[in-house]
Design brief:
Helices cover 29% and strands 27% of the residues. It is built from six helices and nine strands. It is globular.
């Protein structure tokens, strides 16, 4: 399964964007991979970061200011100005309290950089998800696909299962 997911992702994500995400310890988690597995159209790529510094360095790289400002210039309490984030490779689209959205050059999909929370790994991201079918992810740094133990079963059965933080609830809705 890993080979299929990575092969499809590499068709959709330009090489320079792939290397950028790998360099910044990014993780792609959720609906985009579910869409690959179900052969549906991808709306966007939800990109998560392992820590705030990786996120800030990614923004600094996008603006080509990494060498100009030390990371200490962005303390925790400082609000990040998401204006003027377009660069040659990434075009700023919009931002919310939870994410900033870019469209990489040579890519059709949008990339949402999630900054609401930071996660040590893909499994930790799953803790904030509602449905098992979206609990699939790819860690660019580790070149690792992570799948919730019941995600593929629920996808194949067309069952929507809601997850609580402590254990699965048996709230199921049959799909077609």
């Amino acid at each position: 399964m890993k080979d299929i997911i990575v092969k499809e992702l590499k068709k959709l994500i330009p090489v320079n964007t792939w290397e950028f995400l790998k360099a910044h310890k990014a993780m792609l988690v959720g609906g985009a991979i579910t869409s690959i597995l179900t052969k549906k159209e991808i709306n966007d790529f939800d990109i998560y970061f392992k820590d705030r510094d990786s996120f800030i360095l990614a923004l600094m790289d996008i603006r080509n200011i990494k060498d100009d400002l030390p990371i200490e210039e962005f303390p925790e309490e400082l609000e990040i100005n998401f204006q003027h984030l377009s660069s040659y490779d990434f075009h700023y689209v919009c931002h919310t309290e939870k994410s900033v959205t870019f469209k990489p050059k040579y890519a059709d999909q949008l990339f949402q950089f999630i900054h609401q929370n930071f996660y040590k790994d893909v499994n930790e991201v799953f803790n904030d998800f509602d449905f098992t079918i979206n609990m699939v992810g790819y860690d660019f740094e580790l070149d690792e696909v992570v799948v919730h133990p019941e995600a593929m079963l629920h996808l194949s059965q067309h069952i929507l299962v809601t997850v609580s933080y402590t254990h699965l609830r048996a709230h199921e809705t049959r799909g077609n």
